[in-house]
């Protein structure tokens, strides 16, 4: 049985997740990682965003449990932790593109 406290904690975690996703660069990163694992320089090239900014956004996404990094030689390869996270982004983009009356 779920208590009101458990429910409130769940809603808080969901809010934290949505806040972590609520930046255009982070949305773009999630979309890139939806396609395949990427290292920082691949994200920099794909998004045309400076490396320090990409790294900062990756730290936020990693802290929120959205992405994970795995060392591969000298580079860290980033991947989505869960495909559901990309579905949230795709749904938000679809909704944003719809005309609403």
Any overview of this molecule?
GO terms for molecular function: DNA binding; DNA-binding transcription factor activity. This is HTH arsR-type domain-containing protein. It comes from Mycolicibacterium aichiense. Residues 6-100 form the HTH arsR-type domain. InterPro entries: ArsR-like_HTH, HTH_ArsR_DNA-bd_dom, Metal_resp_trans_reg, WH-like_DNA-bd_sf, WH_DNA-bd_sf. The protein is of the alpha+beta class and 101 residues long. It has a single domain (4-97), classed as Arc Repressor Mutant, subunit A (Orthogonal Bundle). Helices cover 65% and strands 14% of the residues. It has five helices and three strands; from the N terminus they run ααβααββα. Strands 1-3-2 form a three-stranded antiparallel beta sheet. Strand 2 and strand 3 form a beta hairpin. The chain is globular, with a radius of gyration of 15 Å. The mean pLDDT is 92.
How do the helices and strands line up, and which of them pair or pack?
Layout: H1 4-21, H2 24-35, E1 38-39, H3 40-47, H4 51-63, E2 67-72, E3 75-80, H5 83-97
Antiparallel strand pairs: 1-3, 2-3
Short description:
Residues 6-100 form the HTH arsR-type domain. This protein has 101 residues and is α+β, with helices and mostly antiparallel strands.
CATH T-level topology: Arc Repressor Mutant, subunit A
Summed over residues and divided by their number, the pLDDT gives a mean of 92
Low-pLDDT ranges: none
Strand/helix succession: HHEHHEEH
Count up the domains. 1
Largest sheet: 3 strands, antiparallel
Distance linking N and C termini: 40 Å
Q: Which structural class should the secondary elements be placed in?
A: alpha+beta
How much of the sequence lies in strands comes to 5-15%
GO molecular function, one term: DNA binding
Keywords: DNA-binding, Transcription, Transcription regulation
InterPro entries: ArsR-like_HTH, HTH_ArsR_DNA-bd_dom, Metal_resp_trans_reg, WH-like_DNA-bd_sf, WH_DNA-bd_sf
Domain HTH arsR-type: 6-100
